[in-house]
Design a protein that fits this description.
Blueprint (H helix, E strand, L loop, with lengths): L1 H32 L1 H7 L4 E7 L6 E2 L5 E13 L1 H11 L5 E6 L2 E6 L1 H15 L8 H11 L5 E7 L1 H10 L6 E10 L7 H4 L2 E2 L21 E2 L2 H5 L1 H4 L4 E7 L5 E8 L6 E4 L3 H14 L4 E7 L4 E8 L13 H8 L21 H11 L6 E3 L2 E4 L2 E4 L10 E3 L1 H7 L2 H11 L1 H10 L21 H8 L5 H8 L9 H12 L3 E3 L4 E5 L5 E3 L4 E4 L7 H16 L16 E14 L2 E14 L6 E8 L4 H18 L72 E2 L5 E2 L7
Helix pairs in contact: 3-4, 10-20, 12-14, 12-15, 13-19, 14-17
């Protein structure tokens, strides 16, 4: 009897549990699974989808210091279609606006009047109205009113955002949101590397049309790494589902798919070195100059700086027309990355000529300088002839030390233009290096074929002589010449310059960018002993009493280098035409086991030894001091302003470019430099009084420019 009642109790219990479970399942289906379906059936209620842009990936240096990050920006957007619909619901007649297109008069709803009445007047009572650009509003209404919201307010303060969020709930078509925008924490530092972004365009791509009710696009890189790595940096969009009532007012969120962040891009750049180089260029007062540092053993670019510069934060959230005009009308070209812009390399190219002679097997010949060489109707001078002298008998090392034009006229012709072109191409001259920066110049490595095509004449020994000293049509970029120097520094290995180190996606998966060897000169027929003669000549340039770059001497960090200066097309300054020269200096240090290769080019510099070499020496001293325990506190870098001053000489404190502790910033740990908020210092750029150039080209009766005097000292 007891067992019969127990069985009934069990059955009743199971039935109750089953019924309760079925009820819960039905409630879950109705309230959760089919929520959107029933919400859409409520009179006047609908669900709209909004595209949520992905968070842009960060750009970091080799040590993890963030150079480009994101910050939260608060903005208010207006959906014009909803605002117009609400106005029509409340009013029998809609105001009209007439405009002319292609000679025809057209009519449309006066969206400016409608927005003022439905949105701006209520906001004004709360002190939140900031006015609206009528022209922009009308243009947006004609082309994008149904999908893309009109940005009414951008970059609100948190207090403004909170006030909007509190008071806009009853306004149709008004939406307050938070979105990530780009931020460059160190101001103009590395701006020509990083580039800048443009805010999302008001255009829906074809592949995304019809997918969203509200479309919010992605910021797009327009220059530098932001542009070349845009696909990696750009995140994957998400979707937000919003409930809208019969008045067009957004009342809540129905669903949300989180966007996926973009990949982080790690550069080979060392932000500390970049900071040092940019500080030194500002301290020198040069207004058109650049510097590059490469690690000889890997080809990694450790720093590349160009002045004048710009602040990429000026483009966030958007740049004003006034600021844009100021940049683009600046004749010193602040947007130009001078490290990848080609010009005649002058006597720094004698390094390539010396390598060509080594390949041809004529580098051991002693040649005699008697002040110049005659090639047909041309008398091509050595710079020392201006002093009434000659260099006499020289070997290649001492010819580099003295930067003897006459020697390299002869050596270049002994080697032959074919060997010069062969070595130049092995070293990457005459073509872009492939570094992922837009607008990179490849320079020009003239050949007989090129001259026949463009000069419409045959190549001659005078042409070879000109190329041999880096003049005439020959041109190269500072990045290329820095890499040539790095190849000599490491005794023959030419790497393709590398700027991207690693790409790390949102899941932490790494894609490493390895160093790529372009050429091994020792496998091409140039021996290490032959390269050592060139290295020794570069050592004499800096360390011997007769060298052309004694101002680059350092007892602590033995340095080798080569000076150069070259005439370039005349420039217009204050409405007057003026001669211009580029002063070059390429170098590496320490001499025995090189850690860095440095190239400096100063536009408006008289000679490499007096202008470019002191800057390079200061860079070498401060950069290598980092290995000795010196640390610096990085601060946001102000823009470097350009000038057209001409420099006879550049000097720094200390002896021979020796490291001056006063030139460094307050010491701090490397970890403290990451995501560190610091104050912006005053512009520390010094100015130099303009001087007149003293180097002028010699021109024959046909207008052909002859090689100029090349006084490097």
């Amino acid at each position: 009897m007891v067992s019969r009642y127990s069985l009934r109790l069990y059955v009743i219990t199971l039935v109750m549990i089953g019924g309760f479970a079925a009820l819960c399942m039905r409630l879950w289906i109705l309230q959760v699974k089919r929520q959107h379906e029933f919400a859409a059936l409520v009179p006047g209620t609908s669900i709209v989808t909004q595209r949520v842009p992905g968070v842009r990936g960060e750009i970091k240096d080799r040590n993890g210091i963030t150079l480009a990050s994101n910050r939260a920006a608060f903005e208010v957007s207006l959906n014009l279609a909803d605002i117009e619909a609400e106005y029509r619901r409340l009013n029998k007649t809609v105001p009209k606006f007439q405009y002319t297109v292609g000679g025809r008069t057209r009519e449309e709803s006066d969206i400016v009047a409608i927005v003022k009445e439905v949105v701006l007047q209520p906001l004004e009572t709360k002190g939140l109205d900031a006015g609206v650009n009528a022209t922009q509003l009308r243009v947006h209404y004609r082309s994008k009113k149904d999908v893309i919201p009109f940005r009414y307010r951008q970059d609100l303060t948190f207090q403004e955002f909170a006030t909007f969020a509190e008071y806009n709930l009853g306004l149709p078509g008004v939406h307050v949101s938070v979105r990530p925008v780009r931020e460059y924490p160190f101001g103009s530092l590395a701006c020509h590397i990083l580039g800048y972004v443009r805010e999302a365009e008001d255009v829906v791509p074809d592949d995304e049309k019809g997918r969203y009710n509200y479309y919010v696009g992605d910021d797009t890189g327009l220059a530098g790494v932001e542009k070349s790595m845009n696909a990696e940096l750009k995140g994957t969009p998400g979707v937000r589902e919003l409930l809208k009532n019969e008045k067009g007012v957004l009342t809540g969120e129905a669903g949300y798919k989180e966007p996926r962040p973009g990949s982080s891009v790690f550069l080979t750049i060392d932000a500390r070195m970049q900071y040092i180089v940019e500080r030194i260029l500002r301290e020198a007062g040069v207004g058109r100059a650049c510097a590059v540092i490469i690690k000889p053993t890997t080809g990694e670019i450790l720093a590349m700086a160009s002045v004048p510069s710009y602040d990429p934060n000026s483009f966030i959230p958007s740049i004003s027309q006034h600021e844009w005009d100021a940049y683009t009308s600046n004749k010193t070209l602040p947007f130009q990355n001078r490290t990848t812009a080609a010009s005649p390399p002058g006597s720094t190219f004698k390094l390539v000529t010396a390598l060509s002679a080594a390949l041809a097997g004529v580098d051991d010949k002693r040649l005699y300088c008697d002040g110049g060489q005659g090639y047909g109707k041309f008398w091509m001078k050595c710079w020392i002839s201006n002093q009434g002298g000659s260099h006499g008998s020289l070997d290649v090392s001492n010819a580099l030390k003295s930067s003897c034009n006459d020697f390299f006229y002869q050596q270049g012709n002994l080697a032959g233009i074919d060997k010069i072109v062969t070595v130049g191409r092995l070293l990457g001259l005459g073509e872009p290096t492939g570094v992922p920066l837009d607008g990179e110049g490849g320079g020009l490595l003239p050949t007989p074929e090129w001259l026949r095509m463009y000069g419409r004449r045959q190549w001659g020994s005078a042409d070879t002589a000109q190329v041999s000293i880096g003049q005439g049509a020959m041109s190269a970029t500072p990045l290329q010449m820095c890499n040539v120097t790095a190849t000599i520094a490491n005794r023959g290995l030419c790497f393709i310059p590398r700027l991207i180190s690693t790409v790390v996606d949102a899941d932490g998966e790494e894609e490493r960018k390895p160093s790529v060897l372009k050429a091994d000169l020792t496998r091409e027929g140039i021996t290490v002993d032959q390269i050592e003669k060139i290295r020794h000549g570069m050592w004499l340039v800096v360390n011997d009493g007769g060298g052309t770059a004694r101002r680059a001497y350092s007892a602590k960090h033995p340095t080798a280098g080569k000076t150069g200066s070259a005439t370039v097309p005349k420039i217009i300054v204050n409405g007057e035409e003026r001669e211009d020269t580029h002063a070059w200096f390429v170098s590496f240090a320490p001499y025995d086991e090189p850690e860095i290769s440095v190239c400096v080019r100063v536009e408006g510099g008289k000679a490499g030894g007096k202008v470019a070499a002191p800057i390079a020496a200061e860079i070498i001293a401060r950069v290598l001091a980092l290995d000795d325990g010196y640390k610096l506190r990085m601060r946001p870098m102000p823009e470097a302003h350009g000038n057209f001053d001409f420099f006879d000489e550049i000097t720094f404190g200390g002896d021979g470019g020796a490291f001056d502790d006063a030139g460094m910033d307050e010491a701090t740990d490397l970890e403290d430099m990451i995501d560190q908020a610091v104050e912006v210092p005053e512009n520390e750029q010094s100015e130099s009084e303009p001087a007149q150039p003293r180097i002028q080209p010699a021109v024959d009766e046909q207008g052909k420019v002859e090689p100029t005097t090349d006084s490097e000292q």
